[in-house]
Structures are given as structure tokens and as C-alpha cells.
Specification:
The protein is mainly beta and 483 residues long. It folds into two domains: 307 residues, Tachylectin-2, Chain A; 152 residues, Exo-inulinase, domain 1 (Jelly Rolls). It is 1% helix and 49% strand. The strands form seven sheets. Strands 22, 23, 25, 30, 31, 32 and 34 form a seven-stranded antiparallel beta sheet that branches. A six-stranded antiparallel beta sheet has the order 24-33-26-27-28-29, with no helix packed on it. It is globular. The structure holds beta-D-fructofuranose.
Length: 483
């Protein structure tokens, strides 16, 4: 039977492929004024398979131009990996060439690392003739079924390229060094720390500034478990990297999670970029088959600028929507208010033109135990999604129990991140985009990302409070106007 297009769920300001399947973002890189997204793509079908690298570029991180498939499958699937810009031609493929290193997956039987290069700003790619470049993980020298997702960067102090790559079923990351991106030397391994209840995939290592200081620290990201044990998600480790070894600053059993929603996975940083920015896949392996969109499945998160901040518990990741997103010319301001009071179920209903918008709201909680915004509020179907803060549990949450289509048995949920308030105020920066919600709490201290599939999109939203009157100290809303 002919499947119906679901353009009502197509995001306006998040990247989605024009058609067919995507999972992880790959090879994120900034080069000569262009941001590149490569992505795990099935060029032929709207489901996982024929894995190849799809490709899109953007000048502003919000409007993406679709390009032809960059690296197609061959006798292997082209799994996740990274791209770097080889400014000084260390590889011999050409000054300023783009070098992709990805995992070749032989249909689940074995995995190794391979290289492709482009000398025309990523428009065409040539697979290296002597692939694979790392056939077996050292020092164990065994051909591996699971050995994947390389990510690389130039490490200036040790004057070499560094690669991190996962041994998923061993819950380990291997670190390699190279002078030319082709010959790699095993340097060290890191693993079995934090959360290792789920396989480790898609590692990346990046140096991040510590806000309010002159110092920086290294952060190792791993896609693995979710705070909710039934799901996958991302964790991170904070520590040092000396050109050889990554050391964790925290006790081995400290678990730090990137996002507390169910739909943020496989994020990696943009290499060669003017600022530290990550982008993730907005979905969960738990229900990918059930994603109800057509003719595409899968979309990316908002690009997030990242840094570290000192808290009483130690250094923690801060994630803020990329400035380009906030400053995009497509936003049209529609509400701006200061100092208004709201009471339980008694506040005004707002109606936008579209269901792609951004709400920046700050609440002074006072005596109230819960505050937030009901979005995608449909007065006919009674569906709504709650984005809020609970004072007693000190949690920022998205509640999609009544958000619309329940695409899998464990889809309907309330997903929450710890968030401690310093001054009794909470600021929610909420992005609603047709079929997704991302909420950033208190200037990037906590993030929750959730997909939603409302039966009928609704442009209505409403502030709410429970058990008390609250003061809204700031409310600004912008709507996304398509070009
Ligand atoms: C993560 C992942 C990667 C792999 C790719 C395959 O979502 O499983 O480990 O490279 O997806 O599509």
C-alpha cells in the first residue's frame, strides 16, 4: 500500500534527510565557511540498511543544502566515523584535503577502519586504495566483529593526529596516534568506567574551556547507556589527555550523562570548527523501526555549543543551542512580556501560526511545587506535552505520556534531568519543532530531548503552575518562519 507523506512532522530548523533513513551524524566538520553533516544513510529505503554516508552543507548551521551521497556502501557498509581537514598535507592527499576515516562493517561479521579523501570541499570522495588502515585493534591483533566509530583531531602539543575508536562489547575506547592519518600507532585504552551496562559506541575526545577560568579540561563522550536503564543515551568523562592517555578525574563509578531524554544519541563534535559544537541523532534505537515518518526517518538535534562549568559536585558539561540557531533570521518575535503572575490552570492559552517555535521563560517558583509550559496543546484531542520543573524532586522534565502517537510500549514517558536551583528561579529554553522538543534548563546546565508525534500538530501552548501562584519574570517567544 502507498504510504502517506507525513510532512506535518518534518522539522523546520532541525536537519532531516529529504528522503529515506538516517541515524548517527558522521564526519561533522567546518571547512572554508561551510558546516558539513555527513550521516548514516540508507539511500534506497526508509529504514536502516545499505549504510552509506549522506551529505549536506550549511553556511549558518540551520539551513541545510542536500548533496549527493558522499561515500556509498561497497562490499561493506560504511559505518560511523570522523572527518578532519588536513591543512598541511600530512597525508599526501593534498593540502586542505578532507580526510574521512570510517568503519567498514562487513555485514555484521567484522569491522575495520578505512579512509576516503576529498580535494573538492567534500563534493566527491575517493576511497584509499590500500584500505583498511587499521584492520585489527592493537595490541590484541584480533580481527574484531565490533571495532568501530573512529573520531579524529589534530593534537598540537604532541604534533600528531589522535583517533579514538570503540571496542563496543568490551566497553573500551582505544586511542591511536598518527603523523599522516594513514599509519596509526596504538597509544592507550580507556574503559569499564562510568556506565557500562550497554555497549560503547561513537566515542569522541575534545578539550573544553572551563567557564570563568583560564583553564580547560578534556572530555570523552561515549554513546552507551541512558539514565533510564532500558534505553541508550550518552555519557561523558572529564579528565586529562597528555597526547597518549586519557585519565578520568572522577572516581571510576561516577556516571555523567549528556541528555536525560530518550532521543539524543551518537553526538560528535564538529572538527576544525571556530567553536566547540556537537550535534546528535534525535531518536532511540529502542523504537527506530516504529518511527512513523515518511518519506524520511530520523533527524538531528540542534547543534549545541559546549563547555564545562564548576559546580559543587565538580566540573559539569554545559550545552547551549548554537548561537547561529538563536540568531537565525527566520525567527519572528511574537511574545515579549515581563513580570506576570500565573496560577494553576488559569493562565492564558497562546496560539502561534506554526508548531515550530522557541520559548524562553523564567519562573520565580515562590510557593509553587511545579512550573512549566504545556506545548502542542490540542483542544480537540486533548493531547499535550508538558515541559516543566519539579521543585521537590529538583528535576527538569519532558512528559510525553499524552503527546500523541505512542509508537512503542515504552515511548510514553516522563524523562527528567536533575537540576538544582541556586536562586529559586528556573529558566526554560524550549524548542518545539513539529515532532521534537529540546529543553535547556538554566542556561545549559541540564538538557532533555524528546520526539513527539501529535495526531494533529497544534500551535497552542500555555504556562502552568501547580500548588501555588508563580511569578514569570521573563517570557519571550519566537516563531520559525520558513524561507
Ligand atoms: C550507533 C551505530 C554506530 C555504527 C552505526 C551503524 O548508532 O550503531 O556504532 O557505526 O550506528 O549505522
Amino acid at each position: 500500500c502507498q504510504q502517506q507523506a507525513t510532512e506535518q512532522w518534518r522539522p523546520y530548523f532541525h536537519f532531516s534527510p529529504a528522503q529515506n533513513w538516517t541515524n548517527d551524524p558522521n564526519g561533522l566538520v567546518y571547512h572554508e565557511g561551510e558546516w558539513h553533516i555527513f550521516y548514516q544513510h540508507n539511500p534506497f529505503e526508509n529504514k536502516w540498511g545499505h549504510m552509506s554516508w549522506g551529505h549536506a552543507v550549511s553556511k549558518d548551521l540551520v539551513n541545510w543544502e542536500h548533496l549527493p551521497v558522499a561515500i556509498p556502501e561497497d562490499s561493506a557498509w560504511i559505518f560511523s566515523g570522523g572527518v578532519v581537514v588536513d591543512k598541511n598535507n600530512t597525508s599526501g592527499f593534498g593540502a586542505n584535503s578532507m580526510i574521512a576515516i570510517y568503519t567498514a562493517d562487513y555485514h555484521g561479521k567484522k569491522e575495520n577502519q578505512q579512509l576516503a579523501y576529498s580535494t573538492d570541499k567534500g563534493r566527491t570522495w575517493t576511497k584509499y586504495k590500500n584500505n583498511p588502515i587499521i584492520a585489527k585493534p592493537l595490541p590484541n591483533g584480533k580481527e574484531m566483529k565490533d571495532f568501530r566509530d573512529p573520531n579524529m583531531f589534530w593534537h598540537e602539543p604532541s604534533k600528531q593526529w589522535i583517533m579514538v575508536v570503540a571496542l563496543p562489547t568490551e566497553f573500551k575506547v582505544h586511542i591511536y596516534g598518527s603523523k599522516n592519518l594513514i599509519n596509526w600507532t596504538f597509544l592507550s585504552e580507556f574503559g569499564k568506567q562510568g556506565d557500562f551496562t550497554k555497549i560503547w559506541e561513537c566515542p569522541s575526545l575534545i578539550e573544553l574551556p572551563v567557564e570563568g577560568s583560564q583553564t580547560s579540561k578534556w572530555v570523552l563522550f561515549i554513546s552507551s547507556s541512558n539514565p533510564n536503564p532500558d534505553f541508550v543515551g550518552m555519557q561523558y568523562f572529564v579528565g586529562n589527555f597528555d597526547g597518549k592517555t586519557f585519565t578520568n578525574d572522577n572516581p571510576a563509578d561516577t556516571k555523567l550523562f549528556v541528555d536525560y531524554g530518550k532521543d539524543f544519541y551518537a553526538a560528535i563534535p564538529f572538527s576544525n570548527a571556530p567553536k566547540k559544537t556537537i550535534l546528535g541523532w534525535m531518536a532511540s534505537w529502542q523504537y527506530t523501526d516504529a518511527l512513523p515518518t515518511f518519506p524520511w526517518k530520523g533527524q538531528m538535534s540542534i547543534p549545541r555549543e559546549i563547555s564545562l562549568k564548576k559546580t559543587q559536585a565538580g566540573l559539569r558539561l554545559i550545552q547551549r543551542p548554537a548561537e547561529e540557531v538563536l540568531k537565525a533570521k527566520n525567527w519572528k518575535g511574537i511574545v515579549q512580556m515581563e513580570e506576570m503572575g500565573i496560577e494553576e490552570d488559569n493562565s492564558m492559552m497562546w496560539r502561534n501560526q506554526t508548531s515550530s517555535y522557541m520559548i524562553d521563560v523564567e519562573f520565580e517558583l515562590g510557593g509553587a511545587r511545579e512550573v512549566g509550559v504545556k506545548v502542542m496543546k490540542n483542544l480537540t484531542t486533548n493531547q499535550e506535552t508538558l515541559v516543566g520543573y519539579q521543585k521537590d524532586s529538583e528535576q527538569l522534565y519532558i512528559n510525553r505520556i499524552n503527546s500523541g502517537k505512542i509508537i512503542s510500549p515504552n515511548f510514553a514517558s516522563m524523562d527528567a534531568s536533575p537540576l538544582k536551583l541556586e536562586r529559586g528561579t528556573v529558566r526554560l529554553l524550549i524548542f518545539v519543532d513539529q515532532s521534537s522538543i529540546e529543553v535547556f534548563g538554566n542556561d545549559g546546565e541540564a538538557v532533555v530531548t524528546s520526539l513527539i508525534f501529535p495526531e494533529n500538530n497544534s500551535a497552542n501552548w500555555q504556562l502552568f503552575s501547580r500548588d501555588g501562584r508563580v511569578k514569570v519574570t521573563k517570557l519571550k517567544v519566537w516563531e520559525w518562519q520558513k524561507d
